[in-house]
Write a structure and sequence with these properties.
Blueprint (H helix, E strand, L loop, with lengths): L8 H6 L12 H6 L1 H4 L4 H8 L4 E4 L5 E6 L15 E6 L5 E6 L1
Antiparallel strand pairs: 1-2, 2-3, 3-4
Length: about 100
Amino acid sequence: MPTLDNIDTTRWKDDRNGCKGDRKEMVEAIRSQREKLLTLKEMQIVQLLGRPDGNELFERNQKFYSYNLTPGKNCGVQDSVSVQLEIRFNAMGIAKEVQVK
């Protein structure tokens, strides 16, 4: 299984929706290692980062997973747009696009 440097995956998984602020400390580490997530299968991503905070089905069996990196509305923070890690999977369940937005 792949690993990510400077990312405590236990703290990451425990910080659902980024509400605790632990993921916020890992934003730059995620940005610098996005390419490590490319070509991973959907279940490998879930093993590494835990269940996504959001997911969306798209046309042609594509999926999008999103992980909140900073606290947002799901944490009770009003007028806040959280920074998210978004991963797009193709119909084969392989990560084809990874972006922080």
